[in-house]
């Protein structure tokens, strides 16, 4: 059965994302996997860390996951199947490895720019992992609780839409929640699309997503990330979809620390679906 994977380091931010994932799994009637990675301690001398310390760390993590599972089940009005898993090593590699063993619906994680999640999201190798991740990734703001998705936004640069917009996943998500779909295109002076390109992209998107009755929004701005977040706030979006690719809005947002903070501090969950 489809499964939502919720990685956690047991911080408040990640636990909020776990609760978001649990409620989403309950609404969709799918499974939930609680997941933790114990990092391997680096040895700074010829003497490796005591093995029993590492074993204790793993044992404590397993205990915490079991307690978290019990709490979710006791608080959940709907019965859901929950599995727990502890791995060791690199977090991103662990997520990829575990996702390959289950029927992954999405990976759900918390957003916080000042601690481990910032390192998780924006470490050099991790950016590449997110860009190449085969499964949808939902980044949940620290103060957002799961509710019905009434309005879903899609940030689109209107370039090579046929090859980069995951229409099947978007159709499925919007229909599952009977939501409105808002398609946003932000154009800047240095990456301005022509009227012909806009018309062609809009026509293709409407052919593919027309059954969802999407609403189109065109914004001219030099501040892409701020415009996206302002749009999400103004239109009261419940989720924003982005599609990471080599030359995309999301890729541009990831380039500066200021932009990263804006994304991590967005007021709505961001769903990243790889092209």
Automatic annotation (TrEMBL):
Signal peptide range equals none
Q: CDD domains from the entry? A: USP-like (cd00293)
Instruction: Using the record's annotation, list all stretches that form the UspA domain.
Output: 1-141, 150-272
Cited SUPFAM superfamilies: Adenine nucleotide alpha hydrolases-like
Q: Which Pfam families match?
A: Usp
Name the protein family.
Belongs to the universal stress protein A family.
Name under which the protein is recorded = Nucleotide-binding universal stress protein, UspA family
Organism (species): Daejeonella rubra
Q: What is the lineage of its organism?
A: Bacteria, Pseudomonadati, Bacteroidota, Sphingobacteriia, Sphingobacteriales
């Amino acid at each position: 059965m489809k499964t939502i994977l919720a990685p956690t380091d047991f911080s408040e931010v990640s636990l909020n994302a776990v609760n978001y994932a649990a409620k989403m799994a309950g609404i969709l009637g799918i499974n939930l996997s609680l997941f933790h990675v114990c990092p391997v301690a680096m040895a700074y001398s010829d003497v490796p860390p005591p093995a029993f310390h590492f074993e204790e760390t793993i044992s404590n993590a397993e205990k915490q996951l079991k307690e978290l599972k019990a709490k979710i089940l006791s608080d959940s009005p709907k019965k859901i199947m929950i599995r727990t898993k502890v791995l060791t090593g690199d977090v991103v590699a662990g997520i990829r490895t575990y996702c390959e063993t289950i029927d992954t619906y999405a990976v759900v994680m918390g957003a916080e720019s000042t601690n481990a999640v910032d390192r998780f999201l924006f470490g050099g190798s991790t950016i590449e992992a997110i860009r190449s991740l085969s499964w949808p990734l939902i980044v949940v703001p620290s103060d957002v609780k799961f509710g019905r998705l009434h309005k879903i936004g899609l940030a689109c640069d209107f370039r090579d839409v046929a090859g980069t917009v995951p229409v099947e996943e978007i159709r499925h998500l919007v229909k599952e929640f009977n939501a409105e779909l808002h398609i946003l295109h932000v154009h800047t002076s240095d990456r301005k699309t022509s009227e012909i390109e806009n018309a062609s992209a809009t026509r293709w998107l409407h052919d593919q997503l027309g059954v969802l009755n999407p609403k189109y929004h065109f914004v001219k701005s030099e501040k892409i990330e701020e415009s996206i977040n302002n749009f999400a706030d103004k239109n009261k979006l419940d989720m924003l979809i982005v599609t990471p690719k080599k030359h995309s809005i999301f890729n541009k947002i990831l380039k500066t620390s200021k932009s990263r903070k804006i994304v991590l501090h967005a007021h709505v969950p961001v769903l990243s679906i790889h092209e």
